[in-house]
Write a structure and sequence with these properties.
By secondary structure, the chain is α/β, with parallel strands linked by helices. It has two domains: 247 residues, Rossmann fold (3-Layer(aba) Sandwich), CATH 3.40.50.11930; 223 residues, Glycogen Phosphorylase B (Rossmann fold, 3-Layer(aba) Sandwich). It is built from 17 helices and 15 strands. The chain has a seven-stranded parallel sheet with strand order 3-2-1-4-5-6-7, sandwiched between helices. Strands 10-9-8-11-12-13 form a six-stranded parallel sheet, with helices on both faces. The protein has a two-stranded antiparallel sheet with strand order 14-15. Helix 8 links the parallel strand 6 and strand 7. The longest helix has 19 residues. It starts with 26 loop residues before the first helix and ends with a helix. It comes from viral metagenome. This is Glycosyl transferase family 1 domain-containing protein.
Length: 487
């Protein structure tokens, strides 16, 4: 029986980092369906053609990467698939296919991401869905595999999509499982997974690739079998797309105040990103600004010529999504000694934030003095990584994959003080959320606000580290030589 993603999703939406939580309620059934795949082999064998799989006819290793369509989309999944395709496609001993999800075409990245080698086959999974569903082609993937046999299939998405794809592949193509390998490029955001999902990975995957060594260890602790081949493959940075621009020029592009101290948060307005905490922290920070610059209160807060500057928070997401951010702000002000209008005037909303091009994102990074991320879990958090790579220190939760590149010497990592388990009613997949204190973020903002030299020092160290260790071309070369050859 094929597993249909519409049985998991209540409406057509993006998943993974951008998943609307309540659409995942049926994920528990996913792995249960997969667990019966082995018993379905006999049924499949009696009806399916026994000779659909054949060895490579040109001697090249056939690799299929199942991930978000590499051009046209603005999310992190798409970006990662693009760079893997661009640099992996140059190797002549492999034949790379991208089984591309959700070709939404919502940004102008077609003009920028136009250098994927022509030998890379890019299949539009959304275009072949009949009827159109969520854009992942989960019901069509088996047909595509039978028409285009592969040696190694790498699935890069969250547990919902991974479970659906694996279930259908094993149900329809499982009789030939000894001919191809299934690999999970495991997207983890919390140190928690449902046991059924871990069982699915243990039963059907031939290897797991984690974002970082931290996530490898988490996967092992969660129950990945001891003999599972595991590798680490972090995300990289592209100096041709994201590069420093003089702050004055960047701010002129968006007509921003050249004299202001600016904090940027480009996270989407969804539960894991904790935008309510960003607003709480910002209101506390602005309350201090009001106290020392308007009320002229004598406090123990560090003040100097730099703390007289205006302050701005750039909200790089929809203001009214999971939280109505202005409503949160207005309510928070009621419990602070600062006028609502004073705080409201510090807010900058970005127009059409989910349709920003790579060029516009680069300019936004260059506009800010400091980046901010309040997430309670994160796989790698490219917005933190990329902003730091441009020399902007981060005031960020120290969770998940952020541990890979954020340090006390290049930013202000905010460590979790408590954690909580997410309920099953809201998401269906659970999670272990690491909670940080908004007060610590307000302190971090003020630290850099009052000391631009420290901000520059931290930002320079962060940029140097990323340029030295995390260039995409170097990482994909490592992936090819040290991981792919072993799969």
């Amino acid at each position: 029986m094929s597993l249909k993603l519409s049985n998991l999703f209540s409406k057509s939406i993006d998943v993974g980092e951008d998943t609307i939580a309540e659409t995942k309620k049926a994920v528990v059934a996913t792995a249960s369906t997969a667990s019966t795949a082995s018993t379905a082999y006999a049924t499949v064998a009696s009806t399916a053609s026994a000779d659909w799989w054949y060895p490579s006819r040109n001697g090249k290793k056939r690799i299929m990467l199942c991930g978000t369509y590499p051009v046209g989309a603005s999310n992190g999944y798409s970006k990662v698939v693009y760079y893997i395709s661009k640099y992996l496609g140059i190797y002549e001993d492999i034949e790379l296919t991208v089984y591309g999800f959700q070709n939404i075409k919502c940004a102008d990245s077609y003009a920028i991401r136009n250098d994927i080698p022509v030998c890379v086959k890019i299949h539009d999974a959304m275009a072949t869905e009949n009827p159109r569903r969520n854009g992942f082609g989960e019901l069509e993937i088996s047909k595509y595999l039978k028409e285009n046999p592969q040696d190694t299939i790498i699935i890069f998405n969250d547990n919902v999509v991974t479970s659906a794809l694996v279930s259908n592949i094993m149900s329809d193509c499982g009789t030939h499982k000894d001919k191809f390998k299934l690999i999970s490029y495991m997207d983890q955001v919390y140190p928690y997974q449902k046991k059924d999902y871990i069982n699915l990975l243990n039963n059907y995957m031939d290897g797991i690739i984690a974002f970082t060594p931290y996530w490898m260890e988490i996967a092992k602790k969660l129950g990945i079998r001891a003999d599972m081949p595991m590798y680490s493959f972090p995300h990289g940075f592209d100096t041709n797309v994201y590069y420093p621009i003089p702050t004055t020029i960047a701010r002129t592009f968006f007509n921003y105040d050249d004299d202001a101290f600016m904090v940027l948060n480009l996270n989407r307005n969804q539960p894991r990103k904790c935008w309510d905490h960003t607003i709480i922290a910002w209101v506390e920070f602005v309350e201090r600004h009001y106290a020392v610059n308007v009320l002229n209160k004598k406090t123990n807060i560090a003040t100097n010529k730099h703390t007289k500057r205006p302050v701005k928070l750039i909200i790089g997401t929809s203001v009214d999504a999971y939280w109505d951010l202005m409503d949160v702000l207005e309510n928070e002000v009621k419990f602070r000694n600062v006028p609502f209008d004073y705080v409201k005037n510090t807010i900058i909303e970005v127009a059409n934030p989910q349709q920003l091009s790579d060029k516009e994102i680069n300019i936004l990074y260059n506009c800010c003095d400091v980046g901010c991320n309040n997430c309670n879990g994160g796989g790698y958090e490219l917005t933190v990584f990329e902003c730091l790579a441009l020399g902007k220190p981060q005031v960020s939760s120290f969770v998940g994959g952020i541990r890979e590149y954020l340090t006390d010497n290049n930013s202000t990592p905010i460590r979790s003080t408590i954690y909580q388990y997410l309920d099953n009613k809201g998401t269906g997949i659970g999670g272990k959320a690491e909670i940080t204190d908004p007060h610590d973020f307000a302190e971090g903002f003020w630290k850099y606000f009052s000391n631009p030299e420290l901000a520059n020092k931290h930002g320079t160290k962060g940029r140097d580290n990323i340029l030295k260790h995390y260039r995409w071309e170097t990482l994909v070369e490592y992936f090819y030589k040290n991981i792919l050859i072993k799969l």
